[in-house]
Amino acid sequence: MSIEEVSARVVACRRCPRLVDWREAAAADPPKRYRGERYWARPVPGFGDARARLIVVGLAPAAHGANRTGRMFTGDRSGDWLYRALHRAGFASRPTSTSADDGLILRDCYVTALVRCAPPANKPSPAERDNCIGFLVGELISLERARAILALGAFAWDGVLRAVAELGILVRPKPRFGHGAVATLGHWRLVGSYHPSQQNTFTGRLTEAMLDAAVGEAASGLARGGPRVV
Question: Which of 21, 119, 157, 201 lies 20 to 30 A from 128 at CA?
Answer without folding.
Answer: 201
